[in-house]
Design a protein that fits this description.
Elements (H helix, E strand, L loop, with lengths): L2 H9 L9 H11 L3 H9 L2 H4 L10 E6 L5 E5 L4 H11 L3 E8 L16 E3 L2 E6 L1 H4 L16 H22 L5 E5 L4 E6 L2 H4 L3 H11 L2 E2 L2 E5 L10 H20 L8 H5 L5 H11 L9 H17 L5 H13 L5 H5 L5 E2 L14 E2 L15 H10 L13 H38 L1 H11 L1
Antiparallel strand pairs: 1-2, 1-3, 3-4, 3-10, 5-7, 6-7, 6-11, 8-9
């Protein structure tokens, strides 16, 4: 090949790199998006028991953001096939999921306001790295998952998943919890237990406030004095999770640099101790010391002050760690049943990475820089020689759908089926005691 031909070949886009975004979405939505697993989730038994059993799917709100920021709300679908047809037709750049209503959202214009109310919605959590960045807590890249340093930023999300997953399971007894990488700079959580879906806005607010240690806009004030004589058990448990990765974060985020010592010392209530930390750790001889050595020195100063009764050392150190690493919830997303949240498995329009499920038990092993992009999975589909396999099984997306099923969907379906079986058994037992009249009475009441 001549030099000119080689240069021309290099200049040509590789694979799907130069293909228009809408054209790539058309391929993704028509051949790869996992409609059936998603329908099994959102239908809560519809796929196995018929449309009537899971008509919540047809009353679920979907919203699309199309090209040129055209925004459409109150979409709804009878089943997965109708949903797929509209996705392929409209090619949404972003898709959000909303609440289940008393009527189909697409009929909203034809029913009265009183007849169109939210009846259920998963309890959701939204955490974004920019909330840490605004406080100058993160110095590593937190916007581009393709950058190697993004792994360091993602440690904040590892802490968030560990802390909140444990709280939701142990403190509230929820079982059906699903975590998702947002595709760029955060994570989302969906709690799908029936009692979570039925929670009122007031109860949702109470749960969100319990999980949130930051109050109002003043995020450096934490609820450390919730109980006398020590930390609340939930905060103590969260402290253990933070401590597992905190020493790595100290160096990565340069929290012990001279120009940032004041940010940590500000959490010490005693002025003398605060000034000692700032004065000692900003000395010239400490400038090039290892960050962990500086952190150890700060802890020694706090511990010594605690022994004199000037401060409560454990609470001070915990408050510093919480300020730096405790999950920062977008609390308004969690409080309202009708709040929209981006759907799993969509493509992030900025990074073109897939919003893939996370395994909370293996979250420390998750590598956000390796999350497949739209180009990559379309290249895999195009180049695969296994023409007999399903399209999705010819791409890296298949493993992420399996994570969704393994960590969430199968257990959800099992619990849903068990609950319905128990309900049917109770009805059968009632009928045996009260006879045919009870069945007739129930049918009349339902009519």
């Amino acid at each position: 090949m001549a030099d000119g031909e080689q240069e021309e070949a290099k200049a040509k886009p590789q694979g799907f790199e130069g293909v228009a975004f809408d054209d790539k979405l058309r391929l993704y939505y028509s051949r790869l998006f996992p409609y059936q697993p998603m329908y099994r989730w959102l239908g809560y038994g519809a796929a196995a028991q018929g449309a009537q059993a899971g008509d919540g799917f047809s009353r679920r709100e979907f919203s699309f953001t199309l090209a040129n920021d055209i925004y459409i709300r109150y979409l709804s679908y009878q089943d997965a096939d109708e949903w797929k047809a509209d996705m392929v037709s409209k090619l949404p750049h972003k898709m959000d999921l909303g609440a289940v209503y008393t009527a189909q959202p697409k009929q909203k214009a034809f029913v009265s306001k009183e007849a169109f109310k939210e009846v259920e919605r998963e309890f959701v959590i939204d955490i974004d790295l920019t909330d840490y960045q605004e406080e100058k807590i993160i110095v590593t890249n937190c916007l581009d998952p393709g950058d190697e340093s993004f792994r360091s930023s993602f440690r904040f999300m590892v802490v968030a998943v560990k802390v909140l997953d444990l709280a939701l399971r142990e403190d509230f007894g929820f079982d059906n919890i699903f975590w998702v990488f947002s595709g760029r700079r955060g994570v989302h959580c969906w709690v799908a237990d029936e009692r979570a879906r039925k929670m009122s806005n007031q109860v949702r607010s109470s749960v969100a406030e319990y999980l949130n240690v930051f109050k109002g806009g003043d995020k450096d004030k934490t609820k450390m004095a919730a109980v006398s004589g020590g930390l609340h058990p939930a905060l103590r448990r969260a402290t253990r999770e933070i401590e597992e990765v905190f020493e790595d974060m100290v160096g990565e985020q340069r929290w012990m640099d001279a120009d940032r010592i004041g940010m940590l010392a500000a959490h010490v209530p005693d002025e003398k101790t605060r000034d000692l930390i700032t004065e000692r750790l900003t000395r010239k001889e400490w400038k090039n010391r290892d960050p962990l050595e500086k952190w150890d020195e700060l802890k020694k100063i706090v511990t010594k002050a605690s022994q004199t009764g000037a401060i409560k050392g454990e609470e001070v150190l915990t408050q510093i760690m919480f300020y730096l690493a405790y999950p920062r919830l977008d609390i308004n997303v969690s409080k309202a049943m009708n709040h929209l949240l981006k759907a799993p498995f969509v493509v992030h329009p900025k990074t073109q990475r897939i919003c893939v499920p996370l395994d909370p038990q293996r979250i420390q092993d998750f590598d956000p820089t390796s999350v497949p992009t739209l180009n990559e999975i379309l290249d895999q589909l195009d180049s695969s020689t296994d023409k007999g396999a399903k399209d999705i099984d010819r791409t890296a997306l298949a493993s992420h759908v399996k994570t969704f099923e393994r960590t969430f969907l199968k257990a959800l379906e099992k619990r849903t089926a068990a609950a319905k079986f128990s309900a049917n058994q109770a009805v059968a037992a009632f009928d045996q005691v009260f006879g045919e009249e009870s069945t007739v009475a129930r049918a009349a009441a339902a009519a």
